Amino acid sequence: MSDKKVRVRFAPSPTGGLHLGGVRTVLFNYLFAKKYKGDFVLRIEDTDQGRYVAGAEDYIMDCLKWCGLIPDESPAAGGHFAPYRQSERKAIYREYAERLVMQGHAYYAFDTTEELERNRREIPNFQYGHAYRDSLRNSLSLTQHQVDQLLDAGEPHVIRIKMPENEHIHFTDMIRGNVSFETGQSDDKVLLKADGMPTYHLAVVVDDYLMKITHAFRGEEWLPSAPVHLLLWEYLGWKANMPQWAHLPLILKPDGHGKLSKRDGARLGFPVYAMNWFDEKTGELTPGFREKGFLPVAFINMLAMLGWNDGTDRELFSLPDLIDKFSIERVNKSGAKFDYEKAKWFNAEWIKLTAIDKLLPDVEELLNENGVQAEKEYIKQVLALVKDRLNFVTSFWKEASYFFEQPKEYDLDAVKPKWTDAKTEFFQSFIVMLNDSDPSIEAAEMETQFKALAEEKGIKAGELMLPFRIMLVGGKFGPHVFDIAVLLGKDGTIKRIHKALEAFNSPS
To answer: What is the CATH topology of the domain spanning 87-211?
Structure first.
């Protein structure tokens, strides 16, 4: 590490939902910054106004807040390098684009959209680069007088970088080691668009320089753009200040073939966005991990393990743990397959580790949605019984509704084939026993009395356990049956036995 203060950035485009790959990029940036007592910057790259979506910036901020990855500098928080929206920095970029033209490293291009489309139709694999630039309408093929006339007339134009034809350039990637490129394989990317807005290529270099970014972590899909960025750092005279780069591996489909997409989530039934995203243009709602019932700590933990490990078999890490253990050198080069079952495992493990009071607000909201009002202490007792059985907090109602309302249906197929009058008589006697018992009876004592009564009646206790469970919850599920009965209370338990006996003894 150099003596410079670490400064990293996440620079999303406000064009839609935040993919889990984007959140992982945020996470690795954040962990690296906090590990070295540095700054994490959020910069909004909204230069493509045609793709801009209202509300997307707020959505991004909400996602980061939910994850606990709060930027030190951002459009909302401000900072010494404001503004942090590229659309508000528009005047800055032309200066540098024009400087590149003056130096001969870039040029004006006056080609219309129609002219470029015709070339793409007529020329196989057409690229605007060294092979064709001299035959197109730009300041390299036109005279200076013609160029001046077009500029004075306000002719729409872009500024393109002039990529060298046969240069070999390279850089050291923090994950991949030495990476090299032949410049002739890259086209002359647009740096400044006709509307005066920069493209990503120019803006990312200028902003990283002006904001003193020391390390740039981004997805490996940006590797093909690296030659353009390397040259811009060199041409603008800033090469000594270029950030160290790390190109993160892709998050792959569950089968490992290709990058995980929103369509994969829709097809296979799992979220790929951090939070629900509603597209007002299409009316499409894309589900998110938050609404599915993931805890932020579990979501972050799961993302960290997609492409990184600490060198041990340990899998559960809180955010402070991750900051302490994180090392960019331990990020894998190869892509990481997304495993939704493993993601659910992380969530279930973190639900087990999470204090009941922290889960309580979400559970109370679920109960309200189902029209249930209950005392906090009772809800806490129910949570204590069932939380180790939950994959999601949102599963609480499905797993525990019987604590708040009597079963509406019973799994009669599991009871009736072996139901007898003797079992009916047993439960009638058990009701009498419960009526006579202490209201504060504990589960172990109730179980002892239950088994003693079964022995007295000459019935195996094991044959009575399942019917008793179904009487209380409706099916073959739930925690220890006597824990359920104690929490329902003896009056609630007696009421359910009476109601179930009517169903068990009714004609088929």
So the answer is: Glutamyl-tRNA Synthetase; domain 3 (3.90.800)
